[in-house]
Design brief:
With 225 residues, the chain is an alpha+beta fold. It is 46% helix and 21% strand.
Length: 225
């Protein structure tokens, strides 16, 4: 047990060091986490290589834990001083744009930071995952809100678990260049987009949007909230 604790602690310290020195995309840390959990399960099932699988899993989980610790500490300090003021920054769209009826929501990570900012902009702008953009607008923090059913939705924590701590509403956004995201995710998002387009051609509304929401998680079919 002591050896396992030492292994995890050493990996945790290593994760803190890596996250402090290098900007590594969250997707890669997520992949390490999934692989670690896989090795943990394999170690429980396969007795012959149990120690090797568990050792690898502990190293991976320790690295991810160190990264998470650094990200939660640094992320809040990056933009706190600018709250309530007009800001302008350049960043990369790190998630699929969420197009609503009257606006588009973008998750943008400013360059050289680990912060994610939720940006709302014109619905008619053509912006894709991996685009490097300039953003100008007033910086604020998200707020909880009451849904149509009268229940309070914990929007702050909903965004927090996704690494989003700030927002810029009705921002001016301009694309600088494209192709700055993960190539695998870019392909997957394009496939999803083509699938949704085919659904729209095959079905009428609201059936097309509802089906897209159920099958591939397209948020336009799941309501505004």
């Amino acid at each position: 047990m002591r050896q396992l604790l030492i292994t995890w602690t050493s990996a945790f310290v290593g994760g803190v060091g890596l996250a402090s020195l290098f900007t590594i995309q969250t997707e890669y840390w997520g992949l390490i986490f999934l692989l670690s959990v896989t090795f943990l399960i394999l170690g429980s099932l396969l007795t012959n290589s149990r120690k090797l699988f568990w050792f690898t899993a502990l190293v991976g989980l320790g690295l991810v834990g160190g990264f998470y610790r650094v990200s939660t500490v640094q992320v809040v300090s990056n933009f706190d001083h600018a709250l309530g003021t007009n800001v302008q920054f350049e960043g990369v769209v790190v998630d699929e744009p969420d197009q609503r009826d009257n606006l588009t929501l973008l998750t943008v990570r400013p360059l050289e930071t680990k912060t994610k900012i939720l940006v709302s902009t014109n619905v008619y702008q053509s912006i894709a995952y991996g685009d490097q953009v300039t953003v100008a607008g007033k910086l604020n923090t998200p707020e909880n809100f009451t849904t149509d059913t009268g229940k309070m939705f914990d929007y702050v924590n909903y965004l927090k678990v996704r690494g989003v701590y700030f927002k810029v509403d009705f921002a001016k956004v301009a694309v600088v260049k494209s192709g700055q995201g993960n190539s695998v995710l870019s392909v997957l998002f394009k496939i999803k987009q083509k699938f949704v387009e085919q659904l729209n051609l095959s079905l009428s509304e609201p059936e097309a949007s509802l089906m897209a929401g159920l099958l591939v998680g397209d948020r336009r079919g799941l309501g505004a909230d």
